[in-house]
Design a protein that fits this description.
single chain, 446 residues, mainly alpha, 3-stranded antiparallel sheet, two-stranded antiparallel ribbon, 20 helices, 5 strands, 62% helix, 5% strand, disordered C terminus
């Protein structure tokens, strides 16, 4: 369609009619032929009632009576095609299929327009609305479009932004009339979100913009489906692919034409689709990254559960009973100067758990998190974590001695339950004997 419109346009006719082209063979007759086809296209491609007024072209006005220039021209086209066929030339004619299709379309549009005006009482007829393009056998189906109806208010809202982004680059008052409406006296369901939050600055997009965004949404869902995802993710130019495929489908349902400043429909739509593709692909990347993060977190939790199950039950129960019987409910203030410096090398959650245990809070308040913290130590490395925790607790003991003037600080032991677990226990001197009984595998006294 784009290539055809580049040949059959008013600029080509003007060039062929110029003095420089007069020397070309058949330039005049070619210009007349292109002008005839172009006039036919201008008449049958009217899809909006204001198109003729906007473009200052009477032939692109809606058909309001059966005796109008548009239908008279279509009658002449039918007669011209009949005469052309009667010449029976071996060359210089349309193919049989193209000739019949053009004649049938022209005659059918005349009859349909007359029926709508005379029998149905229509005020006007837009010939561009009569089309039978089917999407059932294409990449996007009507069911895909119908499934998007529940998200139409949100789609309309973002479509207004993308139309605004396109108009910032175009700075064209005619394109503004084609793409957005400043305000609406009658709000439909699709516009209810914009109407509820606007303070006068938001714009209501025209249906052509909303349809384009809906189409791009459907296309990107198809491209990221199981059938096409691998090829799409491997493509280096995903944005160009998304825009080109969406444009391919929109070529069959263009609802606006060249504006008063000469902006072609595919150029205007290109700005809109480019802005939309940036946002949709950005959202796609975020969703895929979130899925990877969630999968990684689930894998880490499963690993933690497997490690938890590997602990000997008797060791876990004996340690839990011992800690629960020894930790006392007292208030204790600790200076964090040196301790905080050492704590920089430890996980924040681990520092909090150690503080809670060292300050003699009840074991029940920290037990739920403490076990997970212990299991996480293996990821850092047992020997390194053992040294860091030991130094950290020693610094806290020294600060406690300075602050509380303790003559004897409580002892702290670090018990290695197995190769994967490190357990920290604060003790008073009278508890040391019991502690030595539990630390059967290895222990470090601080």
């Amino acid at each position: 369609m784009k290539l055809v419109l580049k040949v059959f346009n008013s600029f080509t006719v003007a060039a062929l009619n110029s003095s420089k082209a007069a020397e070309l063979q058949h330039a005049k007759s070619t210009a007349n032929f292109i002008s005839t086809v172009l006039m036919w296209w201008r008449i049958v491609n009217v899809k909006t009632p204001e198109k003729g007024r906007r473009l200052r072209d009477d032939f692109q006005e809606p058909i309001k009576t059966v005796c109008c220039p548009q239908l008279d021209f279509l009658h002449k086209v039918v007669s011209w095609l009949d005469y052309w066929k009667s010449l029976k030339h071996d060359t210089g004619h349309l193919t049989h299929e193209t000739h019949n299709a053009l004649r049938h379309t022209s005659l059918a549009l005349i009859q349909v327009a007359s029926y709508c005006l005379n029998e149905l009482g229509f005020k006007y007829v837009l010939l561009g609305k009569f089309q039978s393009d089917s999407l059932e056998d294409r990449f996007v189906t009507e069911e895909d479009i119908a499934a998007k109806q529940h998200t139409l208010p949100a789609t309309t809202y973002v479509a207004g932004y993308w139309a605004h982004a396109a108009l910032k680059k175009l700075t064209c008052e005619f394109c503004t009339e084609n793409l957005v409406v400043e305000s609406k006296t009658l709000t439909v369901k699709a516009d209810e979100l914009i109407a509820s939050i606007t303070r006068g600055g938001l714009k209501f997009p025209e249906a052509v913009v909303v349809n384009a965004i809906l189409m791009m949404n459907i296309v990107i869902e198809k491209l990221t489906s199981e059938e096409h995802a691998a090829k799409f993710y491997a493509c280096e130019k995903q944005k160009e692919l998304l825009v080109s495929m969406t444009t391919l489908f929109l070529e069959w349902c263009e609802d606006f034409d060249v504006c008063g400043n000469g902006h072609l429909p595919h150029v205007v739509m290109g700005y809109i689709l480019s802005a939309a593709a940036n946002t949709l692909l950005n959202n796609l990347c975020k969703r895929e990254n979130n899925k990877l993060s969630e999968a990684k977190a689930v894998k880490r939790k499963l690993k933690t559960l497997q490690m938890r199950k590997s602990l000997p039950k008797d060791v876990v129960k004996e340690v839990d009973d011992f800690i629960g019987s020894q930790i006392r409910e007292t208030e204790r203030r600790v200076c964090f100067d040196e301790a905080a410096e050492m704590g920089k090398f430890l996980p924040g959650d681990l520092v909090k758990v150690v503080d809670d245990i060292y300050n003699y809070k009840t074991w029940d308040t920290v037990k739920c998190n403490f076990r997970e913290i212990l299991l996480l130590m293996c990821e850092v490395g047992f020997q390194t974590m053992e040294r860091l925790v030991s130094d950290f607790l020693r610094s806290k003991i020294r600060e406690a001695e300075k602050r509380d003037c303790c003559t004897q600080a409580p002892e702290v032991i670090i018990i290695c339950g197995n190769a994967h677990t490190l357990i920290v226990i604060p003790l008073h001197s009278e508890d040391v004997a019991i502690a030595h009984k539990i630390k059967s595998q290895s222990a470090l006294t601080g």
